[in-house]
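User: I'll paste a sequence; please echo it back and then give the predicted structure.

Assistant: Echoing your sequence first, then the prediction.
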Amino acid sequence: MSEAERLRLACRWDDALAALAGRDDVEARMERVHVLADKNMLAVDVGGELDRAIDALDAEAAGDPRIGAFVQTRRGLKLHAAFLQDRSQGEPPDEMALFESALAIRRELGDEQDIAESLFHVGLVHQVVRGDHSTAEPYFEESYDRAREVGDEMLMSYAVRHRGFARQAAGDLDAAEADLRESLELRRATGWVAGIAAAEAGVAQLLAERGRLDEAIALTEKARAKLVEIGAARVLGFADEQLAELRTAAEAS
């Protein structure tokens, strides 16, 4: 793991960008996009800077299908981040097309890790944007299997988390809890602070559904504290809303 990646997982985005400042290779440019994307999703709107970084990478790596698929993926994820911030406009018109195009390119190239990532993203649109858990689940299954084959614990954590949401929606709470707890442990293993907080919040929601409100509140409070610590202002409101709902439910029970 590079120093920049370690700092990114610790949600020290400015330090990660500083660590990349002396490098001008394609891999460093890709990692810079990752850092800016995380910062844009979690902390502060850096959409313009992120767009410029993606555009520069696209222009400088023209003709390279691997980089082209990466660029399409990042453009799709930027649309997804905007959707999560404001769902009132509905599905971003280009999001699925970008993810499906990236998946097609990556299948041709045959890189298992990249294929696993794109499978997850296609499933993400079906589940999170369209609310179609049954269509999404096979994508998460295949993504998880491919990520496990290459030992990508971070990607495994994404796929198994969203498979857990599908199982939760189907009413299989035992399987859902196992998936969500596996995602949490995988994220703890990688040291991704924001991801751990998200996983804790996911487990807490399921515990609340099972009537274990005290545990759910305690876990949500832990998640919220992490988000405050790293300055994740753009997602803190979600944790505040969940905590308020849980406390109201506990008072009413």
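Residues 194-253 form one domain. The CA atoms of residues 167 and 176 lie 5 Å apart.
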